Amino acid sequence: MHNEAAIKSCQKPDWWRMGTYVICSLAALWLFVSFGSDSDISNEPGSIFKWVSVQWKHEDFRFNWVMLLVSAYTIYRNRRELANAEVKPSPVGMIIVAASLLGHIVGYRTQLPRISIGMTIGVFWGAAYAIWGWKVAKILIFPAAYAFLCFCGSLLMEVTMPLRLMASSLATTLLRGAGITAYRSGAVVYNPISNGFQFEVDEACSGLRSLIVMTALAAPYAYFTVKGFWRQILLFCLSVPLAMLANALRIFSLGLVAEWLGIDLAMTLYHDLSGFITFFLSIVLLIGTAYLINIDWRGWLCSLKQRRQFPV
Fold first, then answer.
1. CB–CB of 51/117 below 8 Å?
2. Roughly how many angstroms between the first and final C-alpha of the chain, as a whole number?
3. d(CA 303, CA 87)
4. Do residues 174 and 248 lie in contact, with contact meaning Cβ atoms separated by under 8 Å?
5. Between the chain's N and C termini, which has fewer beta carbons within 10 Å?
6. Considering all CA atoms of the chain, what is the largest pairwise distance in Å, rounded to the nearest integer?
7. What pLDDT is stored for residue 77 in this prediction?
8. 3-class secondary structure for the chain?
9. CA quadruple 232, 156, 202, 267: dihedral sign
10. What is the mean pLDDT of the chain?
11. Residue range 215-224, pLDDT digits in tens
């Protein structure tokens, strides 16, 4: 009876705490809108959210706003857990808010908006932590982290060149393994013999788009389908090498088509189709990896050991 009464009391909205959170959120919104970016560039927006919208105009990030909908849906999906969670205000949340605001000041004064946009998530999540406590903040970890990935995905632009070099290097190794003479010079993969192929892994083929899509898909897929926190983290981390592998296989297949059917076909019709093939391959790799991670390997090994000891 006591537990049922506690649950019912938790299910009633605490308007005082909700009002406090709304006021804090509005104050934070005003801060990040009015003092979001201190860039000297004349056409750089002052609002940190307008700055993000400019980043999202890039072809690789134009669908990042969909990730915010996923975060919102996750909160809605966990609404009962949030309503029934134990309320215990924590000073740790205030420390997180203070540290996030300090980080924003650093980003604002050093004209690094990417620091400030990351701090917005810390402010909103830390305020919830301070007002409702750890049990609520724990449920909000995934939507907050996913929103952080949504806002800060443009940071991946900094790794475009390393992605190009790794993809071309791996593709060259695979081509040699298939018995095809291939060399790499920077991000250029080529066959030096007469009528051989040569193509450059440019920015569009660096794998950045595949990496963005894979991480954006892997996070909710791991959260909703994989059991266990560390298994979810493992699948998300593995999405990075899986995306790189899928892109390297695409470049490898371009080399095969160029070698067997000609460079013209490889760089026209097949080049366009290979993007869809890479996306499908990435999804298959993600689902297959999630399946392997979900297996209870310890139980499987124990059952296998028992079968060997007691054969039927």
1. yes
2. 51
3. 43
4. yes
5. C
6. 85
7. 92
8. CHHHHHHHHHHCCCHHHHHHHHHHHHHHHHHHHHCCCCCCCCCCCCCHHHHHHHHCCCHHHCCCHHHHHHHHHHHHHCHHHHHHCCCCCCHHHHHHHHHHHHHHHHHHHCCCHHHHHHHHHHHHHHHHHHHHCHHHHHHCHHHHHHHHHHHHHHHHHHHHHHHHHHHHHHHHHHHHHCCCCCEEECCEEECCCCCCCEEECCHHHCCHHHHHHHHHHHHHHHHHHCCCHHHHHHHHHHHHHHHHHHHHHHHHHHHHHHHHHCHHHHHCHHHHHHHHHHHHHHHHHHHHHHHHHHCCHHHHHHHHHHHHHCCC
9. positive
10. 81
11. 888 899 999 9
- Which amino acid is residue 287, in one-letter code? I
What distance in Å separates the CA atoms of residue 285 and residue 23, rounded to the nearest whole number? 45
Convert the pLDDT of each residue in 17-62 to its tens digit: 888 898 988 998 898 888 877 765 556 667 888 888 887 877 777 7
**Whole-model pTM above 0.85?**
no
C-beta of residue 71 within 8 angstroms of C-beta of residue 143:
yes
In the numeric block, the tokens 């952080």 are attached to: 148
* Whether the predicted pLDDT of 188 surpasses 70: yes
Q: Which residue has the tokens 């909908």?
A: 69
